[in-house]
């Protein structure tokens, strides 16, 4: 039964010994370590589960079998030749034995002295013969058991060959013993015999030792005895190992010779064929974003990032795998790797969310028009709207400027009209743009005595961009200086031509004070709305726009919205940008609580989790979960947009150089207002004040009263707090006084702009200009050790002051412009020298002075900005 060690099988199978040990233990085979022996059944299990497929090794095994068979055939042929020689040498062996016996008799007849001399040699020979005959005694005792017929023919052949070698060595040893005459030769032969025996023992499993053994041409025993002796020899080795008990079996015995991989029974593991990667010449198309890292580009091209870095390095570009590159740079790199880059189409998630299908015409119903009142500041927009509503709003507005967007509904002849009052000041451009987008008709208010102003032109541009109908209301016709025709003339330059001039724009002269022309204006609004066929579907989820939003102290976030489609109910889930919630209550423009809001109806809603931005689109959703997910999408997109803007604006090299040079100073501001629209308007106005030397930085903007956290932030960041229509709470006021935080409150935006401009002027670097104080002429030069060249000069006009600057000219060219190092009169230092006197001048680091050079003296004076 063949046994093999686990590590030998693992090495042959090119696998780990630990994997074999684990698999054998799991399947009922008891093994302890990689050095354990396993039987045939365990070997078969290992080969079944770990050996490679037969198809891969079939050809290799067939070649090995053919090699072994050819080698065995050749060796058997050589053994037969050797056996013939052994038969011929039998007679010589018998003759040698008879000669040995006759010599023994002669030695017995020798003298005692000669016997003593020969004792040492006899002992050596006897010990050698005893060692050589020890195994023969064992074989003789077991000779009757040697005739076992169970061995197969292959084992018999191998045993015959091995036994032949042993007999050859043994007989050769005897033959040589008879010829030896010295103890040294006995010892040498004894060592050779032992080495031969070891070689035979190590060659148990066959292999290349046939050639080594057959190389000795010595007599041997006959073939039959060889088979028996080999069996006895095997038993003798087993007995010896059992007595020593050093190794449990033959396989545990250490071998001094490396095991031949071609030996019989060895497991040959075919080496895996490593396929070289095929170079792909095919051109691939990849999609890339606008910006990416080298690692992302390598992943897209399915190339190692190191190879991309290496190729760029060979082109002279030092990059890292985390370095960001643009699409153009990535496109060039991709071409080097046979890849065509295409720009990834940016899918706007918010646009996809807000995208709507076209409404079915059968579901649409008539809705009231939404009218936006626009125009220049103080042209009477709020007064006109007040006259229409028959209420008094103008007196409440500070400085006559409308600070908030108001939304009101008016009934005219049984029909509703929704008015939006937008501010006229240029600071509220963004609010006016939002107002224009949410309206159907724009009323452009122009004062008859003032004409077209810059904000009037701006309002016209917004209305045209929003593609809304424009009705011109010429206000203040009751004033003495009113000139209606001049207004028509000025507006015609902006493609607003009156109907009586052959155009299509409706012009209505009105007076908000006397209420003249108001009825005609309302009729024209209804007529224009009828022509426009304004319709909406009320039986769907509500959708609209936020007019205004603020944080109310008692009610929380409050948003003024205009429903454009569908109907909004109390309890509906709603999402407005990053804000979401359920509608807890709705209040109309007259302060009454309502349960629903139909298209073109403005209402205030409560129940949001935060203050939304003015101008955002609101949507009613099926449930709160959907609203929350849409809000999270808004937040995520806003974060990504902010990061992209920050990356595009921030240039590390430029920032460092500007800071080191001290070219940029920052004025930090915190803006608080009563409504969100005002916060944005104030921020935009103040940011416009930034210039190349001082940058306005608004670190925080919010809705509500100035609180403790605002003051703490201002103290930490050295900021000024701007309050617009809000007051600080008592705690914030105390902290501001203690921390010496500059807290400024305003009701009119003009005052805020003026104060910030003054603060910026204080931060500007002073401007100096040159002031000439005198002229001098060089009459003589002197050279002094340790001082340099001294210019003896005569003051022509003005005076020369110590510490001033000097400009030296020669033949009309300036040869020096710098500081005056020293001013002397005779040998004394003086503070100044007046006109008509002589003096000595020493210039800072300048000695190339000559006679008749002209010297201009000046000082730098600060100029107020």
TrEMBL record:
Tr-type G domain: residues covered: 366-535
NCBIfam families assigned to the protein according to its UniProt record, in alphabetical order: IF-2, small_GTP
Stretches for region Disordered: 97-265
Amino acid composition bias (Low complexity), ranges on this chain: 142-162, 192-209
Compositionally biased residues, Basic and acidic residues: 97-120, 127-141, 177-191, 224-263
Subcellular location(s) per record: Cytoplasm
Keywords: Cytoplasm, GTP-binding, Initiation factor, Nucleotide-binding, Protein biosynthesis
Signal sequence coordinates: none
Pfam family, one: IF-2
Gene Ontology cellular component terms for the protein in this record: cytosol
Domain of life of the source: Bacteria
CDD domains per the UniProt record, alphabetical: IF2_eIF5B, IF2_mtIF2_II, mtIF2_IVc
Family under the similarity heading: Belongs to the TRAFAC class translation factor GTPase superfamily. Classic translation factor GTPase family. IF-2 subfamily.
Protein name: Translation initiation factor IF-2
One Gene Ontology molecular-function label: translation initiation factor activity
Organism phylogeny: Bacteria, Bacillati, Bacillota, Clostridia, Lachnospirales
Residue numbers binding GTP: 375-382, 421-425, 475-478
Reported function: One of the essential components for the initiation of protein synthesis. Protects formylmethionyl-tRNA from spontaneous hydrolysis and promotes its binding to the 30S ribosomal subunits. Also involved in the hydrolysis of GTP during the formation of the 70S ribosomal complex.
Stretches the record annotates as G-domain: 369-517
Coiled coil residues, start to end: none
Primary localization: cytoplasm
